[in-house]
Amino acid sequence: MPKQASAPHLSTIVTGIGGAALVGLLLALSVPAAAQSRAAAPSATGWYTGFGAGQARLGFKTGDFAVGPAGTTTAFDDTDLAFKFFAGYRILPWLAVEGGYDNFGRSQVNYTRAGGQATLDYRVDGLKLAGVGSLAFGNTGFAAFGKVGFGYARVREVTTNFPAVNLRPDIASTSEWRLSPVFGAGLQYQLPRGLALRAEYEQYTEVGDSPLPVGRARAGLWSLSLMYLF
Hints:
By secondary structure, the protein is mostly beta strands. It has helices spanning about 10-35, 160-165, and strands spanning about 45-60, 75, 80-90, 95-115, 115-135, 140-160, 175-190, 195-210, 215-230.
């Protein structure tokens, strides 16, 4: 069924403000950061850790959620605030191994028929392990990076009012774990005192299972992160 348009999500506004703030912060810190001596820079190899937040967006496999009798309409609320934790080890200045936890918040599938409405809550989180390759842009403090690896993602699902609208029992609570390829790319900026800022996009190519209960989706995450490099 076609996806219905919805009003801008609060998370979209927050992410937009966060992106503008990041640009301003990078400009404000670029001059003093460039003036720091090499002695103050973190080691080219070693451990790092970080925390990030941003916006999750799920790409639902709409056919998995097409339930209910004729006349039932389906709408997808596919974005929410998200957060993550991560840590890694730089084997070489341009190569690292990184693991982390991602929480994609809560999305919903809403069903409407004959004046009634049913809701399916769809929550995704996961653990990941990936290799990260980076390319520094000279002495500017900026570096581009890409990552590829695997994630172990969990979908938790619960429904309300399914019997009245979709003529099938409610899903009281269910969960499904699935191994999924993970990839990502972004930009990192080195700050003084071992700190760094990272903006990136990551994606679990497929989470969940088919058919309902659970259902499949592609899980993507845009985020801004603060890192500490030991």
